[in-house]
Specification:
Shape: elongated
Strand order of the largest sheet: 10-7-11-12-14-13
Structural class: alpha/beta
Radius of gyration: 29 Å
Number of helices: 25
Distance between the termini: 85 Å
Length: about 750
């Protein structure tokens, strides 16, 4: 072993600068490593049983392990163990030409970065050498600890468990000719969303099987044994088959062990070279079998069973995370690196294969490196209702536009767990049809449709935002009170969109059945606190909660949302018939300025005061208008403002908008803010969380107060529920008078 790094002269040949140790060539290198097994101009190995292909796949696995450990140890931080236990599977996928690889496991990040380095994808980030790879790991503007769309060649983010399958399924639906493998750790397999979401997806889209779960069954989670560690091989296969998988390919390292390792989970890197090659052959041929099966129309899973931490510094859960003691100078790290060390010629061989696989670096070939072509929507058929005319249901009005989008864009998908009809948007189901194996005209069901209705908000949000991340248009619909169950993945994707290096349609949601409409259902259906979630996310810079006050406004809001890129657009509206209070032009103004004046009544008494009501929502306007009428009789001037796009009301330096991909500023300046909200007192009113009013309260300098949601209760009407929360005309009037006198 040596710590001397060979000198080189070009970006293509000096990539191994920074490698700590070089080893001797494995026996057989002169025979099986003379030339790259992926020939120039080819995208994959020709034959998975070819001894040279097997030998070079083993070299790739060892290279991935070495880089993963050295990169993490360079910062004494990060997670090498999980990826190490499936290095042969990842290497096999690459050697077979499959690079559209996603992961469920954010802790596999250093392994994915190592793969992106080997195929030269990271050169897009000016990372040309191993030293630069080490320097940029877990650093600002570098390789963050968990995966992100900011990294060239990485298809999707990975952080919270229970999300990766959504990205793979979304990509598979949009690209039926490509395979989308995604790794799952057995520590995360206990997340209920993974299997249930795949089962529903397969029922809805039985022909879309070109996503391939790769279960990394290594016996351990982060800090202990995994909950499935005691399953037998037969039980694990039966588990997948019981969830609809027709083909389950399992390769168990234990079957190849010639070192008498104890337990059901063993380390293949401890085998003799002959058995290492036998295990690698089984993985390579098994992955090939699984990939072909998935691409041929069978729901397929591949399982690699190997001890966590195989080939790195520790085994089991102890290999999961590095701590301050795990530095490059630590003896156990040095010994592990020396065990995996390759000679320079082997590194060059691995790099050439990785670069050629799949037709080039992932950063230039995977589907997320390209903008997905979308049909032009043209002008949507917006219908403007007269102000003061008959009340209209906002959601139904928007539903008509949603149906039109789906009829033009056949990739467009609407998702809803609680039922569109219950949200006043049955017209979406009528036009686009609920995807269901049982055709039924009464329920608008058909095997081929564009409305996806699993009874899981995670599955609804997951597929919708996954499709948006992959470049398609979608709409996630939910009851406001239940949407919280799908928000983790919505937040993941919205954050990822802020970092993406390409434009993609914004994630658009429609949240209905607000708390005030759900009196008789009680507090279980009254959770508008979700609006605090979006209020805090507004500071990201690419999140825009919209609160249209009527059926005219919601049309303009949705029409605008469809034109945006890389943003999270949240539309919240009632499903009750409500008065028409705005024109189209007023909402256009509010989308630009944040808010619009709905009514202004000057004081009729000399020297009297003016109260400004800044109102979020639609039903909340009812008691405000009642209060305004009473205040007018008292000679107090009133201005009622509908806050439709509160993100615009922040100051320009309140949010991180400049750091966002497809950055959009557009904040109301101080002069216009003063004109809009000028008065002697201001009362913010919302039927949701008071946090949504923060942009107004931050900038307002007059006496002010807030009326907002407190908590839920069972009531017979919206008015009674508003009264329970102090949102009454009487209370508003009383406080207004107190503020101005």
């Amino acid at each position: 072993m040596t710590a001397v790094t060979p000198k080189a002269t070009s970006a293509s040949s000096n990539f191994y600068e920074g490698i700590q140790y070089f080893g001797e060539a494995l026996p057989g290198f002169d025979t099986y490593g003379k030339t790259p097994v992926i020939e120039s101009g080819k995208v994959a190995i020709a034959n998975p049983t070819d001894p040279s292909a097997i030998f070079q796949t083993l070299l790739a696995a060892d290279a991935l392990r070495y880089l993963t450990l050295q990169v993490t140890a360079s910062k004494a931080s990060g997670h090498p163990g999980g990826f190490a236990s499936q290095a042969e599977a990842y290497a096999a996928l690459v050697m077979l030409g499959y690079k559209n690889i996603i992961t469920e496991v954010g802790h596999h990040a250093p392994g994915f970065y190592s793969a992106m380095f080997l195929d030269r994808s990271l050169e897009e980030m000016q990372i040309f050498t191993v030293q630069q790879l080490r320097d940029r790991f877990r650093e600002n503007h570098g390789l963050l600890g968990h995966l992100s769309g900011y990294i060239p060649g990485i298809l999707a983010p990975a952080g919270p468990l229970g999300q990766g399958q959504h990205f793979a399924m979304a990509a598979a639906r949009l690209h039926p000719d490509k395979l989308f493998p995604f790794t799952i750790g057995d520590g995360g397999l206990g997340e209920p969303y993974i299997m249930s979401s795949m089962a529903h997806f397969h029922t809805a889209f039985p022909g879309v099987t070109n996503f391939l779960p790769v279960l990394v069954w290594n016996g351990y989670s982060q800090e202990h044994h995994s909950m499935v560690s005691l399953k037998t091989n037969e039980q694990m296969i039966a588990y997948w088959q019981g969830n609809g998988f027709e083909e389950v390919v399992l390769v168990n390292a234990k079957d190849f062990d010639d070192q008498n390792q104890p337990g059901d989970y063993v380390d293949s890197t401890a085998f003799s070279l002959e058995q290492r090659l036998a295990f690698t052959k089984a993985v390579l041929t098994g992955v090939d079998q699984a990939a072909r099966s998935a691409l041929s129309g069978k729901l397929t899973a591949f399982i690699i069973k190997q001890l966590k931490g195989a080939g790195v510094h520790a085994r089991g859960a102890k290999s999961h995370n590095l701590y301050p003691k795990d530095t490059l100078d630590a003896p156990h790290i040095i010994n592990a690196l020396k065990e995996r060390a390759l000679p320079p010629e082997a590194w060059q061989l691995v790099r050439t294969n990785c670069e050629r696989a799949g037709g080039g670096p992932a950063a230039k070939t995977v589907v997320t490196e390209f903008v997905l072509p979308l049909p032009d929507l043209g002008e949507l058929p917006l219908e403007e209702y007269p102000v003061g005319g008959d009340p209209k249901v906002s959601t139904t009005t928007m539903g008509r536009l949603v149906a039109k989008v789906g009829q033009i864009d056949r990739n467009f998908l609407v998702t809803n767990a609680d039922g569109n009809e219950a949200s006043g948007i049955a017209n979406i189901n009528q036009a686009l049809k609920i995807i269901h194996p049982t055709p039924d005209d009464l329920y608008n069901q058909a095997p081929i449709g564009q409305v996806y209705e699993p009874l899981s908000e995670d599955a609804c949000a997951g597929l919708a935002v996954g499709l948006s991340l992959m470049g398609a248009r979608t709409l996630w619909c939910s009851y406001e009170s239940f949407a919280i169950n799908g928000l983790p993945i919505w937040q993941t994707v919205t954050q990822a969109m802020a970092e993406l290096r390409r434009p993609t349609p914004s994630t658009i949601t429609l949240f209905t059945a607000g708390a005030l409409e759900q009196g008789r259902n009680g507090w279980t259906h009254q959770r508008p606190e979700i609006e605090a979630y979006f209020a805090s996310m507004m500071r990201n810079g690419n999140v825009f909660p919209l609160f249209p006050p009527d059926a005219n406004s919601i049309q303009v809001c949705y029409d605008w949302a469809l034109t945006t890129k890389n943003k999270g657009i949240v539309i919240t509206a009632s499903k009750s018939p409500l008065p028409i209070r705005t024109t189209f032009e007023q909402t256009v103004q509010a989308l630009r300025d944040g808010a619009v004046v709905l009514q202004e009544v000057a004081s009729h008494q000399g020297g009297s005061k003016t109260v400004v009501f800044a109102v979020i929502g639609d039903m909340t306007l009812i008691p405000v208008f009642e209060a305004a009428a009473f205040l007018e009789t008292e000679g107090i001037g009133v201005r009622i403002i509908s806050v439709i796009n509160p993100r615009r009301l922040y100051r320009s330096d309140d949010t991180a908008w400049e750091t966002c991909s497809e950055a959009e500023g557009g904040f109301l300046d101080d002069e216009k803010f003063a004109q809009l909200f000028a008065g002697d007192a201001l009362i913010g009113v919302t039927g949701g969380a008071a946090a949504a009013l923060e942009p107004v309260m931050l900038r307002c300098t007059v006496k002010r107060d807030t009326f907002a949601w407190r908590r839920g209760e069972t009531t017979a009407s919206a008015g009674e529920l508003m009264a329970f929360n102090g949102l009454t005309a009487q209370a508003l009037t009383k406080r207004a008078i107190e503020l101005v006198r």
